[in-house]
Design a protein that fits this description.
single chain; 177 residues; Alpha-Beta Plaits; 5-stranded antiparallel β-sheet
């Protein structure tokens, strides 16, 4: 690979990382062709793609993309690295990985690190937490719903009080007539 090709690859990777919502780094491990195909197919069904990347080029792309605290990821860039970039649901890659690991009963592919919702998760021990993480939109929707609930109760009480008062006035006016 020529220097120009490497530079172009770094540029493409950096652009992909910048335009994504986050990413997962995996250690593919000794998967055979059948397992690799099955794992990639599962990712594809969720709109995801696994790319095997060269660690030195990925490190430069992380820096160029301006990923905060990217230097914390550098120790994970050993051995072979698989990159999954997502733009939608932040927990989809983790769910696919967890389901695949349970089905195959193996410890690979293993989670090296993840950059989800502007937070770094380093190590396979975070996989379960990543499968349950909520997106910012989900959290905001939950917050709005919780804030609206008391307001709606107050409005309901005011409306029912107004209706009760109107009913009472109507009954009095009918009695006086």
């Amino acid at each position: 690979m020529t220097r120009e090709e490497k530079t172009q690859l770094i540029e493409n990777l950096a652009q992909t990382l910048k335009s994504s919502a986050g990413f997962y780094l995996l250690r593919p491990g000794p998967m055979n062709a059948e397992e690799t195909l099955k794992f990639r197919r599962r990712l594809y069904e969720k709109g995801l793609r696994l790319r095997i990347v060269k660690n030195t080029l990925l490190a430069k792309a992380l820096e160029k993309a301006g990923i905060p605290e990217y230097s914390s990821l550098l120790p994970t860039l050993k051995e072979m690295t698989g990159l999954i970039v997502y733009t939608g649901d932040p927990k989809a890659p983790a769910q696919v990985l967890e389901a695949f690991l349970k089905e195959t009963n193996k410890d690979y592919p293993a989670l090296k690190a993840a950059y989800v919702e502007e937070t770094l998760f380093i190590g396979a021990e975070h996989l379960e937490a990543l499968t349950q993480i909520k997106s910012k939109q989900d959290l905001l929707a939950e917050l709005v719903a919780r804030l609206q609930s008391p307001i709606q109760r107050v409005l309901g009480a005011l409306q029912s009080a107004g209706q009760t008062l109107a009913g009472t006035l109507k009954a009095l006016s009918e009695r006086n007539s």
